[in-house]
Amino acid sequence: MLKINDLVVAYEVAPVLHSVSLEVQAGKIVTLLGANGAGKSTTLKAISGLIKPLSGSIEFCGEVISNKRPDEIVKMGLAHVPEGRLVFPGLTVTENLKIGAYTRKASRSEVKSDMQKAFDLFPRLAERCNQLAGTMSGGEQQMLSIARAMMSNPKLLMLDEPSLGLAPVIIDSIMDKIREINEAGTTVLLIEQNAELALSISHYAYVLSVGEVVLSGDSESIAEDKAVLEAYLGGESEGRTD
Amino acid sequence: MVKLFKWLKKYALLIVMLLLLAAPSVTSQYEFYVVQRGVQNAIHVLGLLILIGYSGMLSLGSAALLATGAYTYGILLVKVGLNPWVGAALAVALTTFIGTGLALPAFRLAGPFLVVTTVGFGEIVRILILNMEPITGGAYGLAGFAKLLPSTRWVYYLMVAALFLIAIAVKRIGESRLGLALKSLREDEVAAEVMGVDVRRAKMVSFALSAMLAGLSGVFLANLTGYLSPDSFTAAESASYLLMVVMGGMQSVTGAIVSSIVITSLPEVLRFLSSSRLLVYSLVLLVYLRLNWVRTGKGSLAGLMKTLGFPLGTGRAKDRS
Prior knowledge:
Shape of chain B: globular
Mean pLDDT of chain B: 88
Order of helices and strands of chain A: EEEHEEHEHHHHEHEHEEHH
Strand content of chain B: under 5%
Distance between the termini of chain B: 35 Å
CATH architecture of chain B: Orthogonal Bundle
Low-confidence stretches of chain B: 312-321
CATH topology of chain B: ABC transporter involved in vitamin B12 uptake, BtuC
Largest sheet of chain B: 2 strands, antiparallel
Oligomer: heterodimer
Strand order of the largest sheet of chain A: 6-7-8-3-9-10
Mean pLDDT of chain A: 89
Number of domains of chain B: 1
Structural class of chain B: mainly alpha
Number of helices of chain B: 16
Helix content of chain A: 25-40%
Radius of gyration of chain A: 17 Å
Largest interface: A-B, 28 and 23 residues
Low-confidence stretches of chain A: 237-242
Number of helices of chain A: 10
């Protein structure tokens, strides 16, 4: 579904990604692991068109998207849940969700039924539909951010560290939801620092280190390879202990 | 009581419009002029509501766009000899064009940097008007152009009708898909981009709409005064337009109209205080804003109602983040 070939990205002059190649197969959960500064978020930003790559190609559903604008890419069915959630704090939950459906030009009834789906997925949001997003807890904002991305009816959902700054209980429930979304037919590309957690729900994994893919394989086999993980991700201390 | 206020809130715009229609019959000539200026300012302020309130882009150069509209109208009539209606249409079109150009720096600048750019733009226009004497009349000003309609009263009715239509349009924009895009821009530009909002286009539309209304307001200003001088388009004027948007609640169309008229007439109402007038004027504004910020987190008419203890439904809570 998504194919990245020899991607090179730089901020101003400092290269961040040297040569990244990866592939996301339809229907799977693929995770991209790496320590701070490995270039995970940069990869996602390049995919969704927020940064223009220096060279290399990004293909989505057989079409090259590396020279397209972000709004065109969203229209093709690629949704991005940005790092730090980035909900619209001064707008209500409902308004946030409506913006999620912005590119679709869908009818009111379609938007309404999709919003119902989002509320079914996250019943918590239904309770708070008229609350300003900025007044909600971090976990609720993360739910909203995911629900908002799902409103664009994506083929591929990209999540940038959905576990960031959340309590372990909330993280578990968010991960369950991601699995649920995938089982309902949406392909997922997940970025995580928490390797153990991400490997537990994903099918395939890539490990990124200093702008390069250093390891890839089935999640299970990578999870067993503790020594390698420790070398690239700084060991289990970052993972959860429970 | 609650019912009454709900009713009042629902029909607020209509009530304000009816009051404005009745104004010429119950006011003296001087008072009528102040109301006219209030209505003319309200048209301009509704444009700023889109730009500042909805899209969150602060502009302190709006007086320059007002000047562009007014002077284009005046010059086309006096120097070129066009029909007033054609002149008005061209003036609005040119102002919209120039205002849209102002969106270009806004692609890369935000916050205080954008404000500085708009202040600069305002000064450039004012100084151009001052120095292009053969065309604009320079410091002597420009006079001798015809009105859109022969009588002042009819111009006023035209203005109120325009204000009513614009108010409904701006309200609808606020609830529409476009409005949502503009508000998302205000809240978080990166998130808006990720959601598929074409940020550049949204900014241009926002600037264009606000410039269009500034241009129209400028045409009416020329109609009201019959005389244009660069002194009426200073940065201080721009600041007072900003004040009108803020006092109106930044989101409310009716609030913006009422606050435009109130703030336009407040200095006149306080005229009996002579030398301490400006002091009292500032104090009134300060107390009003302070009261509302403390109680509701928003300096607005709705906030004032809440401060006074009127139940008005959902007041927005202060953002936690």
